[in-house]
Design a protein that fits this description.
With 192 residues, the protein is an alpha+beta fold. Helices cover 41% and strands 20% of the residues.
């Protein structure tokens, strides 16, 4: 495997990636992801670095120990526009994060192994849910949100929230704003 250096050329090719609309979240950081047409999930390298407390120093420094074939470029959402960003495949994510001894990286490693991998394994592609299953999942989401609004127990709340996240990821939908739980929609001033 070739190792990346500052002069490694990248070819811009037609985008073989589908942007996953619901980024993974870790430590209040959003990690944008893209799904390759082969079914592999790729992660925004800059987002991964920032989520685990590593300073993003560009591809030549931050990804210098990552094989070049594990790095690609995809047009990812960046605010109100799209921007070409470096993305890394799953093995690159592990190499980048698992090498770090920073406490956030260790926590991130545990999160990847306990939540990310099982979610991908269990849910598969986010956009391949049948219409019938989408309706069932949406009804389940509504039930979970109602349960969350009445739950006082922190353990049960956390359990339901993780289940809700998983179901939203399955549909490729963003998580509902949990701060709105229990609020009357007429008091929100949304003009609805």
């Amino acid at each position: 495997m070739a190792t990346l250096n500052a002069s490694t050329p990248f070819q811009l090719v037609p985008n073989p990636y589908h942007i996953v609309p619901n980024p993974f979240e870790y430590n209040r950081a959003k990690i944008r992801t893209a799904l390759h047409h082969s079914g592999e999930i790729w992660f925004c390298a800059k987002d991964v670095c920032e989520a685990v407390g590593l300073r993003w120093q560009g591809v030549g420094k931050s990804l210098r120990n990552i094989p070049a074939e594990w790095i690609s470029i995809a047009s990812l959402p960046n605010g109100d526009f799209q921007q070409d960003m470096y993305i890394i495949c799953e093995p690159a994510l592990y190499r980048l994060v698992f090498r770090s001894n920073k406490s956030l990286a260790v926590d991130f490693t545990n999160w990847v192994c306990c939540e990310i991998i099982p979610t991908i394994r269990k849910q598969g592609c986010y956009d391949q849910v049948s219409q019938q299953d989408q309706v069932k999942i949406t009804k389940t989401i509504v039930k979970l949100v109602k349960e969350l609004s009445h739950t006082q127990d922190a353990f049960i709340f956390d359990l339901l929230k993780r289940r809700l996240t998983s179901l939203c990821n399955c549909l490729g939908e963003p998580m509902p704003n949990l701060e709105l739980l229990g609020q009357n929609r007429n008091q929100l001033g949304l003009g609805v």
